[in-house]
From TrEMBL, chain B:
The keyword Membrane applies. The lineage of its organism: Bacteria, Bacillati, Actinomycetota, Actinomycetes, Pseudonocardiales. Residues 70-176 form the DUF6286 domain. It comes from the Bacteria. The chain crosses the membrane at residues 60-82. It holds the Pfam family DUF6286. This is DUF6286 domain-containing protein. InterPro entries: DUF6286. Keywords: Membrane, Transmembrane, Transmembrane helix. The keyword Transmembrane helix applies.
Amino acid sequence: MTSEPTAKTLDPGGDPPKRVPVDPALRRRSRAAVARSYVGDRVVAVVVGLLLIAAGVAVVLLSNGVFGVGRAARPVLDPMIVDWMTANPMAARLIAIASGIVLTVLGLVWAARAVRPEPHPDLPVEAGGDTEIVVLASAIGDAVAEQALGLPGVGKARARVVGTTRAPALRVTLWLADDSHVADVLEALQTRVLAPAKEALGLSALPVAVRLELDNPPPPPRVT
Amino acid sequence: MRVLLRLLAPVLGLALAAAGVLLAIEVIVGWTRPGEATGVLVPWPDWKSALEATTWADPAVLGTGFGIAVVGLLLVLLGLFARRSDITVIAPRADMTVTMSPRVLARLVGQRVRRSDDVASAAVTASKGRITVTATGWGDPDGEVGAALRSSVEGTVAALLDDVPLTRRPRVRVRLAELRGPR
């Protein structure tokens, strides 16, 4: 993979590390780990919205007689359609039932996707023979969070494994103390928490998304 | 916006599914019991006669069309605006992404600015492209004191932005207000 030793041989007081070229896929994974993606929901909302706009505009135009005054004067449930349905009752029923089933399936799939919790994959660890060792996602998260909590300037920490078993990523949320130096905290997180975690899990790459928050300051003294 | 989308998505999905189930059940029941004059849950014979009596030119139809289009527009806007407004910080490594919310950046700036003895209070708003600081100090904001306060606040914010390197350095705007009364 990429030049891993950088994490260990960093000179703490020196210049910021030079940017090593990193696989764009890793960068994408780390960016995807920032938060759960709502792209699917957003696309569905926009598509359904566009369809509704088109339908509404078509109804308004039809109603105003743009498609011919005679067309606008016909009933909403057109006798032509009613006649066709009475002439072909079987086809009409099948079409209606099929569209009902399609609507049901689409609606249920959409709802299920929307309420499904975000997956936190457990990670397998290299083990000899026919032994299989799996580290639970919650265990990794707790361990990383505890380590991060020990860093200077971090008041509270939380970590989650996100992504898939084959392409995992970490989402770390750090609540920074007032006087912490962001760049130092990030550097310490990389060298003292993330690099050991990656090594312990035997992963060749572990993209990470860090979310910074501010720790609630202690209440000011009541008497000054 | 994101919360609304999050809430709306399952509700709309379930509504769609319910409409589909109703449609299928009504058709099947109407098929198996041809003599029935009314539907199971939906009074479709009444709907049918009502729809046959209204023409497309009816004002109610026009209103419904407008209503549908407006709902569609709201959905499109919801989908477009439910983006994250995260501010990205330059990370020490390329496989690391560091973000903070605009609120956090505003709090960071506010804390630094308020440390100065010349600032009585400060209000900060932050976004990806701009940080606006409204600092309240003593003395005439347009006078010499104001100019000094302005440059000191600008310096503080610039120093903070050096400490917290953002991928896109926002423009900083300082507004001053005067606090009357004893210091």
